[in-house]
Amino acid sequence: MQVGLNISVSEFLRRDVISARDFKRDHFEYILRAVEDLEKSPGSLDGALRGKLAALLFFEPSTRTYSSFQIAAERLGMKVTGFAGPTGSSITKGETLHDTVKMFEGYGADVFVIRHNRMGAASFAAEISDTPVISAGDGSREHPTQAMVDLYAIKRAFGRIDGLKVGMLGDLRYGRTSSSLAYALSNYDVEITFIAPEALQMRPEVIHFLTRRGVTPKKESALKDVARALDVLYVTRIQKERIPDPTEFEKVKGMYEVNLEALREAKPSLKVLHPLPRVDELSAELDGTSYAHYFTQAAGGLPLRMVLLNLILGGGR
Amino acid sequence: MQVGLNISVSEFLRRDVISARDFKRDHFEYILRAVEDLEKSPGSLDGALRGKLAALLFFEPSTRTYSSFQIAAERLGMKVTGFAGPTGSSITKGETLHDTVKMFEGYGADVFVIRHNRMGAASFAAEISDTPVISAGDGSREHPTQAMVDLYAIKRAFGRIDGLKVGMLGDLRYGRTSSSLAYALSNYDVEITFIAPEALQMRPEVIHFLTRRGVTPKKESALKDVARALDVLYVTRIQKERIPDPTEFEKVKGMYEVNLEALREAKPSLKVLHPLPRVDELSAELDGTSYAHYFTQAAGGLPLRMVLLNLILGGGR
Amino acid sequence: MQVGLNISVSEFLRRDVISARDFKRDHFEYILRAVEDLEKSPGSLDGALRGKLAALLFFEPSTRTYSSFQIAAERLGMKVTGFAGPTGSSITKGETLHDTVKMFEGYGADVFVIRHNRMGAASFAAEISDTPVISAGDGSREHPTQAMVDLYAIKRAFGRIDGLKVGMLGDLRYGRTSSSLAYALSNYDVEITFIAPEALQMRPEVIHFLTRRGVTPKKESALKDVARALDVLYVTRIQKERIPDPTEFEKVKGMYEVNLEALREAKPSLKVLHPLPRVDELSAELDGTSYAHYFTQAAGGLPLRMVLLNLILGGGR
Q: Which residues of A touch B62 (CB under 8 A)?
């Protein structure tokens, strides 16, 4: 349906979105172009899914991801049900994911958006239900729609993804956004550098996957050694609880804080991305600079999720 | 308005729904038929209450009941306000139920749906407000709309309610769904057996009510003694905190777990119901069997509540 | 646009609402008349802001204020996003107010309604965002829309505000509604008496502001000394945690409880107001009397907030 792509829109119909590995380059391209179209014609998808019901089941809270899916669904004309966090939900009474999914299926949900701290939760939901399931973050492994948001931010900044040098920094071992983005980027001709302390370096299976796809990532332990080469720096948070020794944490934290000093040798065209929320790892002093691309990146979450829901539920626009 | 029933639709108009005891057989029949009609013509009530406001005041959380009322109200075209749980509501500042009801009355609520852990809360709200009040679960005594959902599930499975043998198992003393269902069933020609340890047997006033209505219930302490005779087995949870002695709880828990072994001698036509959420008292091994009727039962909650809101608020369809 | 007022409707367009001090008498009059018009023609603003998005960011919960803004926005046809309390929001992960505002700005918010326990939070949000910001309560200093609700309640009861004797009682030092109302009243020809124990008397800067505006307030420590002179008694809660000594608190609490006995010498035309929720400081025995004006006052919160949103976002009706 789009020029030069070997897929048709029907490939998205009723499709589960569980892992960034399940999508080919043409899928990503199709989605990114549709988002560009939507940004050019805001309102063109408003009401496209009127009468349909989105069940947002956030077993783990996330203001950003929840809100963008909620607004996206409502702008598409959908009704929204579910919960934004576990508090007070039947989960606290011990109800299983299985039964919760069956309940909302019974109430007529047309799509599930599931966020869960347990790996495989979205995949399990997809197995037991005929209703399409979109993962909104799953254990410490995958956050596929965030990867699409990230790709879109990169394409928007550079007009392309091929040929770029992308650094990913922070807690790559447990950070679900980094592995999903790495999977997505493996469809492109990019150079990837993982920048993290050894204990938080990217998991072997991700590196194996990338290598098999022809993208052999480099590993670095310090930003300063690599900053000058990068086009994109993808920053993620290092959570205190991941580093057993508190003194070690303080050291690591300082080494991986991205501020103007850390970017002294960076290209002027460097774009810094972050899935947000940030705490200390990304200094507010970058906010006013040309490096800062993270708020634009975040804003893309809304049209991206509108496009995705519309493709999966066949809004036909 | 319906053939063979001695009531008119106006009997539902602006009516409070506080106790299953307040409704006669013809009321239940009227509602069940309206739900059947809605299931045959999905969408026929969509938008019937456009412009009206539902205040859902869930002082006690319940994902299932809250969601079904929320979706029901929104499909009817209503706007929804209120809260899904006590967290952060003015309740935690000590505001009384009275003032909370008066507030939402002032904001133009057309109906209240109230869930509260205090017995009599819905009834009190109905006294102080001219706005119709629907109880969505009240102390350990009543959950009248769940009883309607349960009746509908039975009628859907057997085409009738008269002539059936219904067993209720679990915490009958404190379980609000069991007493409401028993009250509702007393309008029919049924045999009821209460299956529970002595400490959790059905409350005397319920048994007295049933007996006065001509339905003298039997009491049993073990499922195995009665399983083979039942058409319907209504399972509810036994909460640990109800049994003072932990060793006693473990014993009771095992005795009242419903699984394939426990149903070895049951009729093939037996239908197992459960108001959900379940924890351990109803084994997942039943899910794929012909006994399992609880997900169908749960799904009925949405059309049932649409019908009820529409009748009370005079949607006129 | 309104007879006899020296302002035009354009003065409200995209205006932040941070402090009651930022509005002149004609602004208040304009708003109050618009609310009167809306109450005469209910429904006249329904759908006026269709397609717009309200971001309700309640970092501090408030059922009453949240619900009234939510219903107001939805009746105007807006979509609503955000959160009703901090639980589970990204705030608990340490996200700054800045980033939260930027996120919802990126998602297309047309207006922010912000409640925060930190003084200056709404003002800060207004500085960093071009999107209009309405404070829904801010630290212990300001709650400007509540002041408008309160003015409207007074005007509704007496047909005017000039010439009235207004007593404010309770925790005037830390209560944000009292200072906002005092600022608003300083535009009128009123007599204000602050009734509170010394430790909780009105803050000097408020008294200074009023005096400069020509309204020199009186201070009293006991209601009984002043009750007979008042036209309006504005009651607020004394929070236990404000009084260090528990014995002292019990004494103070008793002295400032407003009941029939305390109003024995009051004028029959006295109107008692309270921003609600109340706990013990305002006896339920007043509810049925002609003094009780607080539920009417609270009900005005909905049309008031509809009018305000409509003026700020240029609904054009």
A: 90
